[in-house]
Amino acid sequence: MIRLFFIVPIFLFLLSCSGSVMEKQSDSGKYTIILSHKGKELKKGRNSVKLRIVDSKGVRVEGAVVELSPWMPDMGHGVMLIPEVTDLKNGDYRIENIFFSMEGLWELRIKILKGNLEESAIFEFPDIT
Ligand SMILES: [Cu+2]
Protein backbone atom coordinates (compact mmCIF):
# COMPACT_ATOMS: atom_id res chain seq x y z
CA MET A 1 0.00 0.00 0.00
CA ILE A 2 2.75 2.42 1.03
CA ARG A 3 4.56 1.56 -2.18
CA LEU A 4 1.91 3.28 -4.30
CA PHE A 5 2.72 6.60 -2.66
CA PHE A 6 6.18 6.35 -4.16
CA ILE A 7 5.36 4.78 -7.47
CA VAL A 8 2.59 7.18 -8.50
CA PRO A 9 4.62 10.40 -8.06
CA ILE A 10 7.63 8.84 -9.79
CA PHE A 11 5.43 7.77 -12.67
CA LEU A 12 3.93 11.26 -13.01
CA PHE A 13 7.39 12.78 -12.80
CA LEU A 14 8.69 10.53 -15.59
CA LEU A 15 5.61 11.30 -17.65
CA SER A 16 6.20 15.04 -17.39
CA CYS A 17 9.92 14.65 -18.10
CA SER A 18 9.29 12.77 -21.32
CA GLY A 19 7.34 15.78 -22.57
CA SER A 20 4.13 13.88 -23.06
CA VAL A 21 2.10 15.95 -20.59
CA MET A 22 2.20 19.75 -20.42
CA GLU A 23 -0.03 22.11 -18.50
CA LYS A 24 -0.80 25.80 -19.05
CA GLN A 25 -3.17 28.43 -17.76
CA SER A 26 -5.16 30.35 -20.33
CA ASP A 27 -4.28 34.06 -20.60
CA SER A 28 -6.85 35.22 -18.03
CA GLY A 29 -6.22 32.20 -15.79
CA LYS A 30 -9.83 31.01 -16.17
CA TYR A 31 -8.91 27.67 -17.73
CA THR A 32 -6.20 25.12 -17.27
CA ILE A 33 -5.23 23.29 -20.43
CA ILE A 34 -3.49 19.93 -20.20
CA LEU A 35 -1.84 18.86 -23.42
CA SER A 36 -0.76 15.26 -23.82
CA HIS A 37 0.40 13.08 -26.65
CA LYS A 38 1.64 9.60 -27.29
CA GLY A 39 5.34 9.05 -27.72
CA LYS A 40 8.09 11.20 -26.33
CA GLU A 41 8.06 14.31 -28.46
CA LEU A 42 6.23 16.06 -31.23
CA LYS A 43 8.13 15.90 -34.49
CA LYS A 44 8.50 17.58 -37.84
CA GLY A 45 5.54 16.45 -39.93
CA ARG A 46 2.06 15.57 -38.73
CA ASN A 47 1.22 15.21 -35.04
CA SER A 48 -1.79 14.53 -32.84
CA VAL A 49 -2.38 15.71 -29.29
CA LYS A 50 -5.15 15.57 -26.72
CA LEU A 51 -6.28 18.60 -24.77
CA ARG A 52 -8.14 18.50 -21.49
CA ILE A 53 -9.68 21.81 -20.49
CA VAL A 54 -10.81 22.51 -16.94
CA ASP A 55 -12.05 25.71 -15.33
CA SER A 56 -10.77 27.32 -12.14
CA LYS A 57 -13.07 25.12 -10.04
CA GLY A 58 -11.67 21.99 -11.65
CA VAL A 59 -14.81 21.40 -13.72
CA ARG A 60 -14.12 20.10 -17.22
CA VAL A 61 -15.05 22.50 -20.01
CA GLU A 62 -17.34 20.59 -22.35
CA GLY A 63 -18.64 21.61 -25.75
CA ALA A 64 -16.21 24.46 -26.38
CA VAL A 65 -15.08 25.47 -29.85
CA VAL A 66 -11.36 24.78 -29.86
CA GLU A 67 -9.00 26.16 -32.49
CA LEU A 68 -5.33 25.37 -32.67
CA SER A 69 -2.69 26.69 -35.01
CA PRO A 70 1.02 25.93 -35.31
CA TRP A 71 3.16 29.08 -35.48
CA MET A 72 6.88 29.55 -36.00
CA PRO A 73 7.61 32.80 -34.14
CA ASP A 74 11.22 33.31 -35.25
CA MET A 75 10.20 33.24 -38.90
CA GLY A 76 6.70 34.64 -38.57
CA HIS A 77 4.79 31.90 -40.34
CA GLY A 78 2.28 29.17 -39.74
CA VAL A 79 1.24 26.32 -42.00
CA MET A 80 -1.48 25.79 -44.59
CA LEU A 81 -2.90 22.66 -43.00
CA ILE A 82 -5.71 23.36 -40.54
CA PRO A 83 -5.69 20.95 -37.59
CA GLU A 84 -8.76 18.79 -37.14
CA VAL A 85 -10.51 19.02 -33.76
CA THR A 86 -12.75 16.30 -32.37
CA ASP A 87 -14.77 16.90 -29.21
CA LEU A 88 -14.31 13.75 -27.11
CA LYS A 89 -16.80 15.09 -24.51
CA ASN A 90 -15.95 15.38 -20.83
CA GLY A 91 -13.67 18.33 -21.58
CA ASP A 92 -11.31 16.32 -23.77
CA TYR A 93 -10.48 17.30 -27.33
CA ARG A 94 -8.40 15.39 -29.84
CA ILE A 95 -6.44 17.47 -32.31
CA GLU A 96 -5.05 15.80 -35.43
CA ASN A 97 -3.13 17.04 -38.44
CA ILE A 98 -0.92 19.41 -36.50
CA PHE A 99 1.75 20.02 -39.09
CA PHE A 100 5.24 21.30 -38.35
CA SER A 101 6.76 22.08 -41.74
CA MET A 102 10.35 22.55 -40.57
CA GLU A 103 12.72 22.01 -37.65
CA GLY A 104 13.08 24.56 -34.86
CA LEU A 105 10.98 26.46 -32.34
CA TRP A 106 7.23 26.14 -32.79
CA GLU A 107 4.23 27.34 -30.87
CA LEU A 108 0.82 25.79 -30.68
CA ARG A 109 -1.59 28.70 -30.34
CA ILE A 110 -4.87 27.64 -28.84
CA LYS A 111 -8.19 29.47 -28.76
CA ILE A 112 -11.10 28.24 -26.68
CA LEU A 113 -14.55 29.71 -27.26
CA LYS A 114 -17.45 28.95 -25.00
CA GLY A 115 -20.48 31.16 -24.42
CA ASN A 116 -19.12 34.69 -24.63
CA LEU A 117 -15.79 33.71 -23.16
CA GLU A 118 -12.76 33.58 -25.43
CA GLU A 119 -9.60 32.23 -23.86
CA SER A 120 -6.23 31.59 -25.40
CA ALA A 121 -2.98 29.88 -24.53
CA ILE A 122 0.33 29.17 -26.20
CA PHE A 123 2.35 25.98 -25.77
CA GLU A 124 5.97 26.19 -26.83
CA PHE A 125 8.01 23.44 -28.42
CA PRO A 126 11.57 24.76 -28.56
CA ASP A 127 13.21 21.97 -30.50
CA ILE A 128 11.08 20.26 -33.11
CA THR A 129 13.23 17.93 -35.21
CU1 LIG B 1 10.10 28.48 -40.49
Commentary on this structure:
By secondary structure, this protein is mostly beta strands. The chain has one domain (2-128): Sandwich (Immunoglobulin-like). Helix content is 12%, strand content 52%. It is built from one helix and eight strands, in the order H-E-E-E-E-E-E-E-E. It has one helix spanning 2-17; strands at residues 21-25, 31-36, 45-55, 65-71, 84-89, 92-100, 104-114, 117-128. The strands form two sheets. A five-stranded antiparallel sheet has the order 1-2-3-6-5. Strands 4-7-8 form a three-stranded antiparallel sheet, with no helix packed on it. A hairpin with a 2-residue loop joins strand 7 (104-114) and strand 8 (117-128). The radius of gyration is 15 Å and the shape is globular. The model has no long low-confidence stretch (mean pLDDT 91). The structure holds copper (II) ion (CU). Copper (II) ion (CU) binds at residues 72, 75, 77, 102.
